[in-house]
Amino acid sequence: MDRGDDLSTRADVEAEPPAGRKFTFPSALTVLVVVTLAVWALAFLVPPGVYDRNEDGAPVQGTYHRVDSDQSFVDRLNDLFLSPVNGLYGVQDAETGVVGPDLAGELYGSAGVFLFVLAIGAFITVVFATGALDRGIGRLAHRLRDRGALLIAGVMLVFSLLGTVEGFAEETLGFYGLIIPLMLALGYDRMVATGTIILGAGIGVLCSTVNPFATGVASSAADISLGDGIVLRAVMWVVLTAVTIAYVIRYANRVRRNPERSLSGFLPGDREHNAAEPPELTRLHQVVLVLVALVFAFMIFSVVPWAGALTGDAEATPYGFELGWSFPQLAALFLVAAVLVGVVARFGEQKLSSTIIQGAADFISPALVIVLARGVTVIMNNSQITDTVLHSIEGAVSGTSSALFAVFVFLVNLPLAFLIPSTSGHATLAMPILAPLADFAGVSRAVVVTAWQAASGWMNLWVPTTAVTIGGVALAKIGYDRYLRFVWPLLAVMAVLICGFVALGAVWT
Predict the structure, then answer these.
(1) pTM score > 0.85 for this model?
(2) How many helices, marked H, and strands, marked E, lie in the chain?
(3) In whole angstroms, what is the distance from residue 362 CA to residue 242 CA?
């Protein structure tokens, strides 16, 4: 999953910094603790203010006004102390708007998303425990071993598809031992293998369609459906995936024709490398892979607002077959699917139970990141500075066209993605500000979600603060500086295409 610094134990171990390195970028949890303290302190300096709200609870442009805060220092200290609790199950009072764990009103915390992350973690861990996904990708790569360009395209397409639907990223660290020998045996270099893996999964995450850790969390924070904006994101995924595959194949063909043009060079023995054939898929593995495909296909079906997607009218009356599922139903779906896969794989009660528990445990980090990030928004809400921040940004973008606004959202999130490498934490922090801002600009909130996740995904293709990148180049035994030389032209092209897509989406919607 693409979770920024929210890494599984396996990814952390494989991406340990070199010995003697004095500084490592702090984890997402540490960053959010610092952000929490900083926002709490700034709340004493930022003047409180509010917008008038319409019947849907959205702020009305032009109605911002200052208010007097009735919070004492003890109240503010209590908000800081309870911020993680409020981030999980804080309830917002309907009259005062204050959030607290013992109030009556509407759930403000992220309990639904929290449980969903644990559920999908359990499901993915059970699937990996069967060995079906690893072996399936291995068999695909080996079957295409005599057709180099097709091999690159096939592996990248599979990784990209997994990235766009379920955030497949850190899991790619386990495939270097398979992909590198295959690429070397075909006359390519280690950079081809690295680009195939990092860029294949990364472009899928950048163009997430229903990725729960990016699109899902951001859509929840923006108070829209997971399926809103899926048409634009799907078109982006097709185009950017094709461009990325073509870029890697172009480099691969150049190296094959002239090995001297390799950016990574060759280690001793690389030119004599032979790839071993992975084991055949068993009937069990085939059944598990079919089940995984069906589960994710059903997830997409259950969340897409089909009437709006097919007619282009966001207010269209839903068709009778639409399910309109959200995080509670999806959490239940993945828990049931985890049990089903375990039963099909004949794990037995003890192994299935322990694997589900281990899966939930491995994903507790991104779940806690969401909770901490939501706790920051509670502090801003209770101190009544959220609307003040929104008002200050409103002034900066007022008068801009919808297309320029969408590009602005992409650009402003680039530094935020570096400072908060967790996609889920970044989304939970940014969306309460950016989503209402989209209302002021007359832009669909779904476009803001798309621009935000594109910024996060673009940064995660190269920043050295994620195990996917720094761990990948370490496993491939190539220099990080050489990887940057390889990828920067593609990053430039992607940035232009992304700006074009979000601008078009803002005008179109």
Answers:
(1) no
(2) 21, 5
(3) 33
